[in-house]
């Protein structure tokens, strides 16, 4: 742990998150080349590029208009999160652009004391999902093949930001709610399968490690 902490002390939270997301995208890209994920590498590349350009330009315009400080690294992180969530299909390209604009808008308009109160990526997804339910999308990062990269990188991130209590509280609550629902509705036989599926597809872990923790 001392070796890990020494490494974490040499890097900022933003930079660690950025490297984590880039690693997940590259890992997913390799899985696409081996057909373990049902998407085309070129479509992922287009989705990533669209999210980055839209987030960066929207962030710059809003910051200039409102006279606020712009954090390009934060905008890039939001873009990569969205690229990992919105399905990497050309059909979803308008959705990822709209979600990116909404995400950047939430950073400047849904604020208290000039600090955003919702995770920008989550706010963008909810906004577009409410306006167009058909484009709410499926979190394609929810795959058993991405479980270990999401988990290991997420544990590093949790240690760096020192918010493990938030993460474990959420995961334990998730377990309790799902288990309680299955027991209450008489589906005890599905308990193990449902809980295993919920965690092994990595979407729950990605939400807990990346989206739930920022802002606190």
Overview of the molecule:
This protein is an all-alpha fold and 216 residues long. 70% of the residues lie in helices and 2% in strands. The protein has ten helices and two strands. A two-stranded antiparallel sheet has the order 1-2. The radius of gyration is 18 Å and the shape is globular.
Largest sheet: 2 strands, antiparallel
The helix/strand class is mainly alpha
Q: Please give the order of strands in the largest beta sheet.
A: 1-2
Helical percent range? over 70%
Low-confidence stretches: none
* C-alpha termini separation: 25 Å
Count helical runs. 10
Number of strands: 2
Order of secondary-structure elements: HHHHHEEHHHHH
Sum up the overall morphology in one term.
Answer: globular
Radius of gyration: 18 Å
Strand content: under 5%
Mean pLDDT comes to 88
Blueprint of the fold:
Blueprint: H1 2-8, H2 13-33, H3 41-66, H4 72-85, H5 93-109, E1 111-112, E2 115-116, H6 120-131, H7 147-161, H8 164-184, H9 191-200, H10 203-211
Antiparallel strand pairs: 1-2
Short descriptors:
single chain, two-stranded antiparallel sheet, 216 residues, mainly alpha, globular
The gist of it:
This protein is mainly α and 216 residues long. The protein is built from ten helices and two strands.
